C-alpha cells in the first residue's frame, strides 16, 4: 500500500485521504476528467441514485467536498471504481434534510452497489470512532482486487453539531454479467 499523502477532516467531519503517487484518471483532450465515464452511484437498498463529483484537496490538505448533499465525492487522483485497489466515495449525511448517505448505516453484507457499469457487493458495514492516520491509510490502496469504500458521518451530537463516528462500508467488485 502506498503512503498517505494527506489525511483530512473535512467540514462534514468525514475522514478521508489521498494515497501518494496514485496514477491520473482518464482525461479528455483538454486534460479534464471525464466524469461521465464514472457514471452514477446507485444503492437500491437505501434508495441512493447520486452523481459522482471529482474533487481535489484544499490548501489545508482537506478533501474539497462541496456543499451538495445529493451527490458523492471522490478524490480526482485516486483509484476509480472498478480499477485495482480501493475506490473511496465520500458523501454527506445531513441533519436538516435529506443527505445522500443518511441511510448508509442500514446497508448489510450482500446488498449491491452500482457505480457506472461496475457492480459491487457489500462485505462489511461498521461505525468507527476517532480514526487514526494509519486507520485512514488502511482505506486507501492502489493494489489488490478492485473494491469500493463508502464513507460518511454518523451519530451527530445535536447539542454540539459534531459527528462522533464515521460509517464505513466496504464492497467487493462482482464479475461482469
Automatic annotation (TrEMBL):
What is the protein name stated in its UniProt record? Class F sortase
What Pfam families does the entry give? Sortase
Q: Where does the signal peptide begin and end?
A: 1-22
Q: Which InterPro entries does the entry mention?
A: Sortase, Sortase_dom-sf, Sortase_F
* Keyword annotations of the record: Hydrolase, Signal
Amino acid at each position: 500500500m502506498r503512503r498517505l499523502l494527506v489525511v483530512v477532516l473535512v467540514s462534514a467531519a468525514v475522514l478521508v485521504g489521498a494515497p501518494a503517487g496514485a496514477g491520473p484518471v482518464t482525461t479528455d483532450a483538454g486534460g479534464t476528467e471525464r466524469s461521465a465515464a464514472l457514471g452514477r452511484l446507485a444503492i437500491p437498498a437505501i434508495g441512493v441514485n447520486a452523481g459522482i463529483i471529482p474533487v481535489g484537496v484544499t490548501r489545508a490538505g482537506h478533501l474539497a467536498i462541496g456543499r451538495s448533499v445529493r451527490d458523492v465525492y471522490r478524490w480526482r487522483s485516486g483509484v476509480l471504481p472498478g480499477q485495482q485497489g480501493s475506490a473511496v466515495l465520500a458523501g454527506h449525511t445531513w441533519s436538516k434534510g435529506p443527505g445522500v448517505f443518511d441511510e448508509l448505516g442500514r446497508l448489510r453484507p450482500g446488498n449491491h452497489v452500482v457505480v457506472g457499469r461496475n457492480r459491487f457487493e457489500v462485505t462489511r458495514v461498521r461505525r468507527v470512532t476517532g480514526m487514526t492516520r494509519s486507520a485512514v491509510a488502511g482505506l486507501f490502496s492502489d493494489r489488490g482486487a478492485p473494491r469500493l469504500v463508502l464513507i460518511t458521518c454518523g451519530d451527530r451530537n445535536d447539542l454540539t453539531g459534531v459527528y462522533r463516528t464515521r460509517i464505513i462500508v466496504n464492497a467487493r467488485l462482482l464479475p461482469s454479467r
